[in-house]
Amino acid sequence: MANAVIFGIFLLLIGSRVESCSLPEYLHVNVPQFFKAGYVITTADLSQCDAKSMHLSLTDDRFTVTRRGEIVAARPVAVLASRRTFSVWAEDSAGPRSEMVVHLDCATQGEVTLKRVKRRWGPPPFNILENDNGPFPKFIDMIVSDSASTHTVYYTISGPGIDEEPTNVFSLESKTGNFFMLQPVDREQYPVFNMVVQVYDVGTHRETDDPLPIVVEVDDVNDNPPTVDGPILFTVAEKSEIGTLVGTVIASDRDQKGTDHVKLRYTLLDRLGMFNIDSKTGDITTATNTLDRETQATYLIPVQIVDMDGRPKGLHTTATATISLSDVNDNPPTFKEKSYAVSVQENSKEKLILRIPVDDKDMINTPNWISQFIIKKGNEGGHFRIETDHKTNEGLLYVTNGVDYEKNKIVNLEIMARNEADLTGTTAQWNSIPIKVTVGDVDEGPEFTAPTVRFHVRENTANGTVIGTYTAVDPETKSSNGISYYKVTDPAHWINVDKNTGQLRVANKIDRESKFVHDGTYNITMKAVDASMKTGTGTVIIVVEDVNDNRPTVLPGEKVVCENEDDSVVIVAEDADQPPFSSPFIFSMPADSDGRWSLTRFNDTAATLTHTKNIPTGIHDVDIDVQDQQSLSGVQTVRVRICECRNGVCLAKQRSVTFGPMGLLALLLPLFLLLLLCLLLIFFCMTKGEKRQIDDSGDSGGILLKSNTEAPGEEVDASLINVPTIVDPVSKGSVKGQMVSSGWHDTTLGGQTQVDNGFYESNVLTTDTQDYFSGRYDSQYGQHLVSSGVDIDSRYLAQNAGFLHNWQTNGRYLQQKVAILGSEEDARYADDITHSYRFEGVGSPAGSVGCCSDHADNNDLNFLNHLGPKFKTLADVCTKK
Predict the structure, then answer these.
(1) Is 515 within 8 Å of 429 (Cβ atoms)?
(2) How far, CA to CA in Å, does 180 sit from each of 135, 176, 188, 198, 431?
(3) How many folded domains does the chain comprise?
(4) Which of 228-232, 267-271, 380-384, 710-714 bottoms out in mean pLDDT, i.e. has the lowest?
(5) Residue 533, C-beta contacts closer than 8 angstroms, at least 6 positions apart
(6) Are residues 184 and 270 in the same domain?
(7) pLDDT band for position 725 (cuts 50, 70, 90)
(8) What is the 3-class SS of 759-796, one letter each residue?
(9) CB 23 within 8 A of CB 260
(10) Which helix (H) or strand (E) holds 822?
């Protein structure tokens, strides 16, 4: 056909929705690739719609729809792609809005004359239908660049669907620009494709136009049924009100959002009618208030979800909702028996006498099931108690305090059972049952007429006075025959008890001020014993009445007042008795008072004592008279110390002091220390060495210096001590002759001396000195004056006259010192013994240089080779610089 052939296909409304304005779901119309404005595409049958309330609308403004259902082009339209898609919406007052998807398909070349139309370089997005069945390749549209009018061009395309995943979905003819679809596409996986088309000159291979973005949108088809998100598990309380929300079924659809493909409708498929569901929201609610967990605890409800807003052609899914009923306390505990009877022996204590089982239909081990038992009646005496066995939920009835058979032979109890939680959703009440308790008789001990008895007794009551009688009776016979009485406790031994009658007599003086009386009462415990040796106990409370048997007494302690007149001190008195036998007190001075003191009332228990005349400082005893309310009085002595005061403060306390042993020791200790010091000084004086005077005439220049130091001596100028050089004609100037003629020799050099009249003689010279001056110590002296085989001439002697004089003087001094040392006891040559001195640190490496340290070895001169530091020190001193 030369003109466009239009096939209008409209479906009748579905039987279940005939009452609403409904359109077919899809409509495919073959149209030419280009048609002008006013072109009627097709006409929809709207006979099922209400003409007055009907409303039609389109999603593509290139088309319009009339009220008769004609779909008309509003402006020229080019359908170069294989399919163009838009929607028509119809709605009236009879039902929901209905959608019809219109697909415009281009006619084939056999049906429509193809006419090439120049396309602008920027076409709108192309639309393809998902899951298209082909045949493939399927023409989509022709892409033409404006540069094709001036150049011979070819086209290339790239992007997803071409050379990127998913590949080989589309293709573009290089020379013609025809765009084809090669295989079906799943919109839920690839809803849109973005590609780029480029155009090049055939000859130069240069782009003749800007790259063209190509967008291919995949139109949705309803190919995905709804899916339920997660398990459908709900809980609702039993006996809930109608309309109580149970839960919401949540489902989803993978199809395109905003279309009927994802509009879901919910339906319950059960026939029980216990629950309802909202078809749009999926909310499940209760349809009755009779849900009973004890009858059925769980419901399995099938739920159907349909897309396409529930239309018959919609895809659907069925799921099962599990609804559990939670427990409420709508069942009170019930007793298994209607009543109970039990027996118990009298005087039984803390004994289980009955187990009471109950039934409860509520959930086990919850507050709705756990029972609590209450004794509503019959336990006014407090003899019973009831508890719950948490394992069995039974009631446990105990007798706690012994029941007296003589008073209660039968006890009727009423026990009620309830739960921890209150009743809900029921009109039932808590249940109660009666329990009959029969008390058995036993042979009991005697019982006193009362558990306690009180007797009033005045203190100081005469011994033997009867204060009362406390008796007991046998509970069975109500008789006192054969009962004996004994004391159990009597802390102060004030009471005697008659064994046969229970009579109480005063045994010792009763004193209300005793420590055994508390708050004016004194308690004793008595025991009654019958013929069968059964016992009973009771308490006697003696109320001790006060008498005026205590005089007021002044509180002890010394009082201090200043010597100034009118100075006073407060005197406080106390009385062990109670009013009216105590305060207020009356203070007064005795009749024989000397008038130097006066008393003034201060309060009920105190008075002010003032001296009215000048009284000397010191301690004074003042007598005062204190009376209680009953004129019981006594003279009290108050010790008052009068002292000199300044600014109201006593300057010094005048009071006697008694020394104890430690005080005497403190006084004698300084005297003992002084005596010890004197003895120590005497000891030092007696042990001090005798001083000897040594004449040190002239400036000898010797080496002995006055010093108190124990350290090495000061350095001595060598010029002060020189070796003597006396030339004797006999000896021809030799050193040996000089030493002999000089009249002395140095003992430290091995020479020997003879003692004559206590002085050392020096006219003997041994070979030791000869050896010394023979040159054996040449290496020590170097260029010394003394050398081996060298004589000293007269010129040297003349040049050193001063040296000779000094040497002789020192010699004489040393001779006197040696004589004194030789006079020591035991004929010692010198005081070369160990003495105690203060420690001065490490000793000298030179050791001792005493005069006789080497005396024992006088025949061997080898010691001269090993004198060490001692000899070196002397050699350095004697060396002439």
Answers:
(1) no
(2) 11, 12, 21, 16, 86
(3) 6
(4) 710-714
(5) none
(6) no
(7) very low
(8) EEECCCCCHHHHHHHHHHCHHHHCCCCCCCCCCCCHHH
(9) no
(10) helix 801-822
Q: Is the pTM of this model over 0.70?
A: no
CA-nearest of 124, 143, 132 to 216 is: 124
Owning domain of residue 623: 553-650
What pLDDT digit, counting tens, does each position of 84-110 carry? 788 888 877 766 777 888 878 765 444
CATH number of domain containing 485: 2.60.40.60
Q: Are 771 and 874 within one domain?
A: yes
Residue 291 CA to residue 855 CA, distance in Å, equals: 137
- With CA atoms as reference, report the closest residue to 325 among 300, 291, 277: 291
| Residues in Cβ contact with 763 at an 8 Å cutoff, skipping those fewer than 6 apart | 740, 743, 754
Query: Is residue 469 within 8 Å of residue 501, measured between CB atoms?
Result: yes
Q: Please write the tens of the pLDDT for every residue from 406-443.
A: 788 899 999 999 999 999 888 899 999 999 999 988 87
Instruction: Select the highest-mean-pLDDT range: 18-22, 547-551, 607-611, 726-730.
Output: 607-611
Q: What are the DSSP calls for 582-648, one per residue?
A: SPSPEEE--TT--SSEEEEEEETTEEEEEE-S---SEEEEEEEEEE-TT--EEEEEEEEEEE-EETT
- The number of beta carbons lying within 10 Å of the beta carbon of residue 35 is 18
Provide the b/e sequence for 178-209 (b: ≥16 CB within 10 Å). Answer: bbbbeebbebeebeebebebbbbeeeeeeebb
Please indicate, yes or no, whether residues 114 and 137 belong to a single structural domain of this protein: yes
DSSP annotation of 372 reads E
In sequence order, what are the residues at sequence separation of 6 or more whose Cβ sits closer than 8 angstroms to the Cβ of residue 741? 726, 728, 730, 731
pLDDT for 851 beyond 70: no
Per-residue confidence (pLDDT) for residue 861, from 0 to 100: 64
pLDDT band at 6 (very low <50, low <70, confident <90, very high): very low
Of 650, 684, 699, the last residue of a domain is: 650
549 exposed, middle or buried (CB, 10 Å; 0-12, 13-18, 19+)?
middle
Tell me how far apart the alpha carbons of residues 601 and 607 are, in angstroms, rounded to a whole number: 4
C-alpha distances in Å from residue 108, one per residue of 25, 114, 287, 545 = 25, 8, 59, 137
Among 16-30, 149-163, 815-829, the minimum mean pLDDT is found in 815-829
| Secondary structure of residue 401 in the 3-state scheme | coil
CB atoms within 10 A of CB 749: 18
- Pairing mode, if any, of strands 633-643 and 559-562? parallel
Whether cis (ω within 30° of 0) applies to the bond prior to 135 is yes
Q: 340 and 320: one domain? A: no
User: DSSP code of 164?
Assistant: B
496-519 pLDDT, tens digit each:
999 999 999 999 988 888 899 998
Could you tell me if residue 393 is inside a domain? yes
Answer yes or no: are the C-beta atoms of 197 and 180 closer than 8 Å. no
Clarify whether residues 433 and 479 are in a common domain. no
Residues near 770 by Cβ (< 8 Å), separated by ≥ 6? 736
